[in-house]
Amino acid sequence: MDKLLTLTALRRVIQLTAFVFFVYGAAFFTTFYTGDKLTQSLPALSCAYDQSGGDFCTLIPLQHQMDHRVSTIFTQGEKVLPALIGTLVTIATVAALILVLNKAFCGWLCPLGFFQETVGMIGTKLGLTQLVSLSRETVTKIRPIKWFIFLFLVLIFPILTGIGYLGHEWGAPYCAVCPSRIMTTAMTGDMSQIYISQANGGYFALSLIADLLFGLMIALALFVRQPFCRICPILPMQTLFKKIGLLRLVKNGSSSCDSCGNCIKACPMDIFEIQERAENKNITHSDCTLCGRCIEFCPHEGVMNFKYGPFTILSSSKESFKKRTKIDKWWKG
């Protein structure tokens, strides 16, 4: 029974529930008609290519706004504010979501994150040798990739398409290569997104990259924790507003923390900065998904904490560390 009374167990239940809702829509939990209304009304942030799921990912309107609205500043002499109003509304929506959940959306609700974790658990049970953590040098080299993807595939290429410098296929290039598009549609039995386009060179390249990236993500997830999460372009958007989030990871280890490194080993994103000494400091890193594993595996009383506003909702403790370590050994054994 104790194996079910952990933060990770609670997170898995929430992840599974969110996965079903985002991929299969609210109709899975209610009647068809009620579900259809909810699915079309809630800001679920799931993939728009999934015809069953709720609403759509915020990166979709951003790309279209760059292509069809922001580009008019350069092509039609449109005034800046009217051209940017849609983008500002989208960004404000993201800011509101981060205010309430901060980056917990990634660690607790994201369908693609849950899919990768599930593949990783399968790899563990198959006895595959998994990397406990990547080296600090490797992590440092990987981190800029998400900014490159965000700047070029979400912003710059769509703007250049709207101006006329690139073909129509570059109007929403991130969606064209996003693994979530393939994963969510395939989970509903729709295999139409797994294809190689021969419309032109651009479509061919993007569709080929999409298939290869999806396959590579699955292969890597068997051995490496959260491979695609490390380069997801949602992270840069969250980084802009993470300081306003009410939910945050706070470290208070000025005297108790002995830099044992357990938090690093537990962190699926290999955020080495969290082991540094800090006194009552918000250490919610730009790559952090607020999964809470560092709290579970910290052996010191009150060093790692989840806080929501002024309230502490979870703290590390020796007792929970011993229980969590025993469960981890049972699972991997």
Q: What is the terminal separation in angstroms? A: 18 Å
Give the tally of β-strands: 4
Largest sheet: 4 strands, antiparallel
Structural class: mainly alpha
Mean pLDDT: 86
Strand content: 5-15%
Tally of individual domains: 2
Percent helix: 40-55%
The number of helical runs is: 15
Order of strands across the widest beta sheet? 2-1-3-4
Q: Oligomerization state of this entry?
A: single chain
> Which parts are unreliable, with pLDDT below 50 for 5 consecutive residues or more?
none
Radius of gyration: 21 Å
Q: Helix-strand pattern, N to C?
A: HHHHHHHHHHHHEHEHEEH
State the shape: globular
Polypeptide structure, described:
- The chain is mainly alpha-helical.
- The chain folds into two domains: 2-238, no CATH class; 246-332, no CATH class.
- It contains 15 helices and four strands.
- A four-stranded antiparallel beta sheet has the order 2-1-3-4.
- It is globular, with a radius of gyration of 21 Å.
- It starts with 6 loop residues before the first helix and ends with a helix.
- The model has no long low-confidence stretch (mean pLDDT 86).
